[in-house]
Design a protein that fits this description.
This protein has 357 residues and is of the alpha/beta class. 32% of the residues lie in helices and 20% in strands.
Length: 357
Amino acid sequence: MENEWKVLGAELAGRKIPSIGLPDGEEARKARIGAIRNLLCRELYGFAPAFPLKVEGVERKRDPDGYGGKAMILRLEIQVTSPFAYTSFPACVALPKGVERPPLFLAFAFTEAIADGMGEELIDNGYAVASLYYEAVAPDKDDKFQNGAGNFCRRNPYDAWGKIAIWAWAGSRLLDVCLEKGLADPGRLAVVGHSRLGKTALWAGAMDERFTLTISNDSGCGGIALYRGKAGEQLEDLGRWAPYWFCGNRMHHEGRTAEMPFDAHFLAALIAPRHLYVASASRDDWADPRSEFLCCVAASEAYGAYGLKGLVCPDRYPKPGEVFPEGRIGYYLREGTHHLGREDWHRFMEYRSRHTI
């Protein structure tokens, strides 16, 4: 990396981030990836339940002429049963007509509207969209994990899953149903989210290798932004107003991020060698686009271990409006503030079209 990026490499060196340390050899690399996954589960996101699951998608409503006749829209209830518990949540899948096994975007949404109102835009471009309203899975509040999927398994105050891991797990259960029903091309599955749901999409992509593309939009702290040297939101800010997003062990790192045995590029390493697309906004100071971009630079180490190009970019910080779409890590710096809109979605679709697997 130092030979390619002297300027960017020097900035990373100044932040003193730890090396991902993926070794040569498939077996050794798998072992290191497993260790990183366990580390991030234990120290930040929490462990999801490991017991066997039965997942069913019950169709509650079907609209054969959605969006003026352009789409089939299925309203589903995702039912998840374990030997010990049961939970369910609603989801929606929109399928473009005339496209067999279309590429799919699984979108974590802030509202019940399909992809927060962008469903028709995706349909018009030949994509299916599976939309999951996150608070229908588990409420975004400190409810002591007593509601929805938060109550699916027994907890401990240390490394049991937080809400981000719960929402990500629910996305994978929706994906189970989409694949079981043959609703999408299993080789072209993308997961996407914005802000706290960008963190969620990253964790879903890290934990579920069926997603061939993971998209983070303005995910910031706890997402794709490096912790060391970060401006704006810090880990202790998350601990003050949304501690339930993460596991209890998170608190040991608040105010001590320089001493953590990991940084955000370890999360990106769990997505390698699959595709990762990171979108930032030039005036999103709270998320800190510079730290998001530098995480992509640092994460290229993981892709290099597979003999692949991660981020392909000039040896400088990007200008607003610049797109770097060539590598396994794509990056886009939109002009403006913290937002997910039509322009962002078109960049996502362009990257998916460019990298079809």
